[in-house]
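Input record, target 12 of the design panel.
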């Protein structure tokens, strides 16, 4: 979702963007589809109830309220935070390259840091003393090498990485609201990052982090960075999810090797066997990240703000397509291109039907342009 030139949203546009992305069943990809089809968030909001009805929604889809959006914006202003929209000058530049960039980010702290080239440093929460020292040293040296160090402000490796990079610049991507400190033991670290670094969140202020928030947070950690360094990680660690997301986003993955008998080294040693860059010092990271011959990251489709897209397909054509497409969908993820090849409908028709199903709460999107049908209770 990338623009050739930056653009500043008005307060009214940000309010409507906030209403749209906070509406049930509207995620970042659906947000983009709606803006592309209706030209702006206001028109899209008006169209939501009818689109959801056509998709077979059991209950009406009610857009997020205007008053609620204005209250959220006021709460951010009271905190000294601000909303930055995709396409605006201060939006993290690499984040716009991922498949599902957040339309709006809450930002608190030194916004200018977001323009720096970044590297993420992540790892185990129950990290060893050696692992924490390694993370802090890597972050300090990467920062001194000119990089913004990104992490998730969890205990263990994340906290050590932030501490190491405070003097040069660090970004903490939060799983909860921009004003919610988690874990509570990181209160002092949060205050220091707020004063010396920068904090970011895509959820509303006051939101307590839940398990479902962290995979989405992890995609932002990898999305803002050119590479991800994993210091310690068990085989089922969230850090390995971040590494996988980094690979899907075209980022470099680095891993610090560990002792064979330490379960916290199994994840990083596995990454190295799978082709991650073996990392023993910041120089190993800087050499790759700053390499002039590194291929540019692919840009996703331009978001068009110029007006309404062509009219939707004819109702009878959509009716025929709904039945055919629903029969081909299952609970197992299916690539949208495969649906196009097998159903003989135009991309526009397929896109409309999938959009209706998603807004009705009957379709789930997955990485890699895949979709699956949500089975009823």
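The sequence produced for target 12 reads:
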């Amino acid at each position: 979702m990338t623009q050739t030139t930056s653009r500043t949203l008005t307060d009214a546009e940000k309010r409507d963007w906030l209403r749209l992305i906070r509406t049930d069943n509207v995620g970042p990809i659906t947000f983009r589809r709606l803006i592309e089809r209706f030209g702006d968030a206001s028109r899209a909001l008006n169209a939501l109830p009818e689109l959801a009805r056509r998709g077979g929604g059991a209950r009406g889809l009610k857009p997020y309220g205007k008053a609620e959006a204005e209250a959220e914006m006021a709460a951010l202003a009271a905190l000294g935070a601000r909303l930055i929209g995709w396409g605006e000058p201060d939006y993290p530049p690499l984040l716009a390259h991922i498949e599902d960039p957040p339309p709006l980010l809450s930002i608190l702290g030194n916004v200018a840091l977001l323009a720096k080239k970044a590297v993420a440093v992540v790892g185990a929460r129950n990290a060893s003393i050696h692992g924490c020292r390694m993370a802090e040293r890597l972050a300090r040296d990467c920062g001194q090498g000119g990089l913004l160090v990104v992490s998730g402000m969890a205990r263990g490796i994340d906290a050590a990485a932030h501490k190491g990079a405070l003097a040069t610049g660090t970004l903490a991507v939060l799983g909860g609201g921009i004003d919610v400190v988690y874990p509570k033991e990181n209160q002092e670290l949060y205050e220091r990052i707020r004063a010396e670094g920068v904090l970011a969140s895509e959820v509303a202020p006051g939101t307590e982090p839940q398990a479902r928030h962290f995979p989405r947070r992890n995609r932002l950690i990898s999305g803002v960075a050119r590479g991800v360094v994993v210091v310690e990680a068990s085989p089922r660690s969230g850090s390995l999810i971040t590494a996988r997301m980094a690979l899907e986003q075209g980022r470099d993955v680095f891993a610090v090797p560990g002792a064979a008998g330490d379960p916290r080294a199994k994840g990083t040693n596995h990454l190295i066997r799978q082709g991650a860059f073996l990392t023993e010092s910041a120089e190993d990271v800087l050499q790759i990240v700053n390499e002039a011959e590194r291929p540019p990251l692919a840009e996703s489709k331009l978001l068009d703000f110029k007006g309404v897209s062509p009219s939707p397909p004819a109702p009878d054509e959509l009716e025929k397509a709904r039945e055919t497409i629903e029969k081909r969908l299952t609970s197992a993820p299916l690539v949208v291109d495969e649906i196009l090849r097998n159903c003989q409908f135009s991309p526009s028709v397929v896109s409309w039907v999938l959009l209706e199903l998603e807004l009705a709460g009957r379709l789930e999107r997955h990485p890699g342009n895949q979709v699956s049908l949500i089975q009823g209770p």
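The mean pLDDT is 90.
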